[in-house]
Structure prediction request, 953 residues.
Amino acid sequence: MRRITQDLLLGVVFSALSAGLLRALLLSPGALAAPAAPPLGAAPVWPASAESAVKVASYEIVAKFDGEHHRIEARETIHFVNRSSAVLNELWFHLYLNAFKNDKTLFLRSPFGAGRSGDKAKQYGYVDVKKLSVVDGDGQDLWLKRDRHSPDDPEDETDLRVPLEHPLEPGQTLDLSLEFEDQLPELVERTGFVDSFHFMGQWFPKLARLEPNGSFAHFAFHPQSEFYADFGDYDVTLDVPSAFQVGATGSKLSESASKGRTLLRYHAENVHDFAWTAWDRFEVRSERIAGVQVRLLYPPHQQQNADAELASVRFALPHFNARYGAYPYPTLTLVHPPEAASNAGGMEYPTLITTGGPWYSTFGGGHFIDVVTTHELGHQWFYGLLASNEHAEPFLDEGFNSYAEAEALEARFGAASVFGAFGQSVSSTALNRLFSAARGADEKVAQGAADFATFRSLGAIVYSRTATVLATIARVYGRDRVNHALGVYTRKFRFQHPTTADFLAVMQSELDERAVTALKLSFSERATVDYLVREISNAPLSAAAGVFDGPSGRQEKKPEAPHQAAEYASRVVVYRHGVLQLPVDIALGFEDGTKQLRHWDGGSFTFNVDNLGPSRLVSVNVDPEQRILLDDDRSNNWLSTRGDPAPHCRDGALYAAQILLGALGP
Amino acid sequence: MSDQTLNRTTPLSTAAAAGMLLWISRTLLGSLVSYPLLLAIRGSGMTSGPDGDAVLFQPGSLLLLELLRVDAVGLAAAAQVSLLLLGLSAIFELIPLALALDWLWRPKRPLCERLSRGLSLFPRFLLLGVIALLVQAALMLAASLLGAAFKPVLASADERLRSIAPLALLGLGLIACGWFGGALDIARATLVRRGARAPSARAAFAHALLCLRAQPFRVLIGLYPSVAGSALGLLAAAWLLTRFVPASGSNVAIALSFGAHQLAMLFAIGWRVRWLGAALELSAEGD
Prediction:
């Protein structure tokens, strides 16, 4: 009995100590405190930025929600202004919800699994427009004259043309009235329902973006694509069963309940979309952060995730404000969908973002919640305020936002921005570089979302390659300069629809010509770079030997033994493969322990590093600070005559094998 | 007790000798197991720079991920070879285990005789290991099936319960496996104690199960400090190294890292040896 007690006591003590150590090892330093946003150099000078958008399409919607049958009945009024230079004879409508109407739509007939979404929906969804007429017009139903399908695609009804009865001159306004009904699909691509959880994204008939030349930027809903729309004001009244908690774009103006239903009115100005969610099990937390009323909706029992999400906003909102201009809206809504509806997670809409992750996401040293929250919050700038065409140039929002996300996370957590535990850390920059190097040269960065071969390719190139290009330029030409240049871009094109050309024009004014060339080549030409070394040579320089005739007669000098040489001529040749020309440092190490740093502008294809000195050259390391994240292969950047090149690995591998043997064997 | 009255406190020198024997064998076999991986890492070129493999452990893991990218095929192949070697090593480590048990039971036996006994017991140790492996696999399978069976029942429960319940069942399965592992050690101890009169593996196992039935909690709780002590040693080494020893290429850092790891291993083996002594005692009490 005494022995049992002794063993039990020992076991308990050991377990308690182990638990303490495990906790210490799992807690990364960055998780403990959220430092203030680092200043962006001394008092940066920013260009003037717009206070509001040029409004083209504003929407008033009154919607009645049936949570049991997952349906919405709604009336919609669109106030449209022809801000283009052309006379308009037609309108283009996006009916994104029709992407889930049947298996033949462009969206659902595309290969699944490789797209953004997970499983196909078991219950289909669609939007039926009942009537479209001009307000104060002759009451004619324009919808009857619509095209029946998307251009060149008889199976798809997500991109429909409606001819106008009368031409619309530049500057003229047109008020349209619609009646429509939604049948929500089982959750797919962020929209739909799972049990009583509902998420309504792209749920209403929406005008395509009117370009300045009078063309509409319209497209059928492709599974790899996102959206593009004009700015406007949204006034949306939602009639929902009172049991549901609702989160929506904009500010809640009023709320009234009657006979088991609640009427909620939301209003948002200078936005280009309106999304909302309804669930009868949401927990709600509210907090004022950097002058913004932040409201978080999350599933029961996920307090730790909620804490992490609010902590992320507390850091990232002021950080992004300083970097890219102040968030201009009074509210921000965060939605953490339940686990069964995880497809709804990780998406951005104006003033509303969805995060996600299982309840244990904050355990184990990973920063998954912080990564998702920071990324989606960053979209309030990259696409929210800089409303570029996500269909045609997805890298302008997803890629730039991935850079912004990594920069913010590393400002907060340092190198452990994705993971930090057991003395190991993984940074966002390292992960972006990994995906970029693996697939980055497969396709062009600057191409349409639907043009990418697969969503994996799009993910690696649009998100990771773009972020890696920007991070490389920042490391090579100065982080402050690049961040400042991005800040100029985000302020100059706030509430606008910038293009690649707009971005490059700003970079042209803020950065060196070579940096801009590298950006252009990287985005448009699949340009790559790989610095490499092949061998080190050391030639002993001895005193001249041979027969010499001098004033004092003929003298014979014998060759010295190599070890007696006074000097060595050392050479290493550094090669550049690929067309990207980026300046690079080269670290040289000599036998006597001395070191030298040489600089190469990267302009030529080879660079001879010569040295005349008393010691042999024993090591070379091209880009020792790892500035050129675009370098295709880092394993050929160095050479060394070092004895055992892998002592840590030897120790670690032996230790791991011993542990496994202990667990498996006796 | 039929053979010998077991001295409850095994002399420290004897325990140390048995422990050293296990550590040496584990180190040699561990070196063998890890060698293919080490070769793959060296062959990748990622450690050819002036800082060797210290670059792989820099904050952010940029170059560690690069190693995984540039040498994924080589590392995968090496890992397969290492796994094969691990399996073989686990089998061959039964010989030093038999020697260590024998050392604990009869500290003064001549080395040749001890070696000969260890080798002669190897087939029965192996058979015991196979039986135990099959039973433990069945236990884990049962735990996993039970978890799957509970899934519909838990469909309406909250997310936490839905994900914790199968894990808890697997945890219970692991405890049962550990318990069964304790019985396995008692069976091994029985074989060692009986020496020339050693029963068949099946009979030894039956004897161990009798011991387990007679004193179930003593087996379970006797194993507890061994398992918890091993975990403590490993975690303490990890904590000390992450706090005080940066992964630089310096010789001091490498020596400290190696020292801490091997101390942790010795600590774990020490507790294992203590349990083996207890297993001998339990086996003798069951006679």
Remarks:
- The first helix of chain A runs from residue 2 to 26.
- The longest strand of chain A covers residues 530-541.
- The CA atoms of residues 263 and 523 of chain A lie 48 Å apart.
- Confidence is low (pLDDT under 50) at residues 30-36 of chain A.
